[in-house]
């Protein structure tokens, strides 16, 4: 089986801590190049990969089979369009883009056929197990994080942009339904959200920041811990040389994406419209919060 030529735009924390370890062990992809305007970010890039200052330059130099967009959110739409204009499929980290105008620009460039949003939590075992039981009718998610602790090379667009796309997509994924109504209010340490799904299901979300990372979900009355793993579980992973859960999830996502790129259209990947729904819902939450 021929390995696919993969290019990446953006060599920040998501690349070095999550995607590069997953790509390095992937049987499907060869990393042929990385684009970033900051020369100091290339220290983590393998010597065999080309280096470029922009996605457009990288695409011209390497002629890849696919591009992963990990650049700052304000560059996501432009980088994805640069690839799609060359009929190169793209995988785009969240947020897929920042405005509904950018959603329409992506759509016009062929995103419904060529773009896959990287909603990696769909590949976490806890959420896959819930989804396998069938559509959930009562969902409660609590996510606490400190985006600044990620030490992003470029400042994130904001905690809401960083955290909300995850829970919006999980509500849709686990309920199997689009979001109908959205309620949002300020919470003591973040925001409280309530989604009425079109199926009649309900999802309640608490997003908190800043704070030590915690994540938990209750689906149809059953509580589950999503992370972080216990100290014992982390130790066992290191001893067994198994990747951390977020890296493992990206590895599974890349394997599915590779199957899709090779023509297997039965693979259940997130769709462009899932990314578009997250962008629209984040904007609606901002309006509700005032």
Could you characterize what this model shows?
The protein has 290 residues and is an alpha/beta fold. It folds into 2 domains: 4-120, NAD(P)-binding Rossmann-like Domain (Rossmann fold, 3-Layer(aba) Sandwich); 121-247 and 271-289, Dihydrodipicolinate Reductase, domain 2, CATH 3.30.360.10. Helices cover 39% and strands 24% of the residues. It has helices spanning 13-24, 55-62, 73-84, 100-108, 111-114, 125-132, 159-175, 231-239, 245-261, 272-289, and strands at residues 4-9, 29-35, 50-52, 66-69, 90-93, 115-118, 138-144, 179-187, 190-197, 202-208, 214-219, 222-227. Helix 1 crosses helix 9 (245-261) and helix 7 (159-175) crosses helix 10. The radius of gyration is 19 Å and the shape is globular. The model has no long low-confidence stretch (mean pLDDT 92).
Question: Helix and strand layout, with pairings?
Answer:
Elements: E1 4-9, H1 13-24, E2 29-35, E3 50-52, H2 55-62, E4 66-69, H3 73-84, E5 90-93, H4 100-108, H5 111-114, E6 115-118, H6 125-132, E7 138-144, H7 159-175, E8 179-187, E9 190-197, E10 202-208, E11 214-219, E12 222-227, H8 231-239, H9 245-261, H10 272-289
Parallel strand pairs: 1-2, 1-4, 2-3, 4-5, 5-6, 7-10
Antiparallel strand pairs: 7-11, 8-9, 9-10, 11-12
């Amino acid at each position: 089986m021929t390995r696919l030529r993969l290019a990446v735009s953006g060599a920040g924390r998501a690349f070095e801590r999550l995607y590069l370890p997953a790509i390095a062990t992937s049987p499907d992809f060869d990393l042929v190049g990385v684009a970033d305007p900051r020369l100091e970010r290339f220290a983590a890039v393998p010597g065999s990969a080309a280096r470029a200052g922009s996605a457009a330059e990288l695409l011209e130099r390497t002629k890849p089979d696919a591009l992963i967009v990990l650049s700052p959110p304000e560059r996501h739409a432009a980088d994805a369009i640069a690839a799609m204009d060359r009929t190169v499929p793209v995988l785009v980290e969240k947020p897929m883009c920042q405005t509904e105008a950018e959603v329409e620009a992506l759509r016009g460039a062929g995103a419904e056929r060529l773009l896959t949003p990287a909603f990696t939590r769909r590949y976490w075992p806890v959420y896959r197990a819930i989804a396998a039981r069938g559509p959930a009718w009562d969902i409660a998610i609590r996510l606490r994080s400190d985006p600044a602790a990620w030490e992003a090379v470029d400042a994130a667009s904001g905690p809401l942009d960083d955290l909300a796309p995850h829970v919006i997509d999980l509500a849709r994924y686990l309920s199997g339904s689009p979001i109908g109504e959205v309620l949002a209010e300020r919470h003591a340490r973040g925001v409280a959200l309530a989604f009425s799904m079109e199926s009649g299901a309900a999802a309640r979300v608490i997003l908190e920041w800043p704070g030590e990372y915690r994540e938990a979900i209750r689906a149809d009355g059953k509580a589950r811990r999503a992370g972080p793993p216990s100290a014992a579980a982390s130790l066992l992973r290191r001893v067994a040389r198994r990747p951390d859960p977020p890296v493992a999830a990206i590895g599974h996502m890349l394997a599915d994406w590779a199957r899709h790129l090779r023509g297997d259209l039965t693979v259940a990947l997130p769709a462009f419209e899932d990314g578009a729904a997250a962008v629209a819902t984040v904007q609606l939450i901002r309006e509700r919060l005032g």
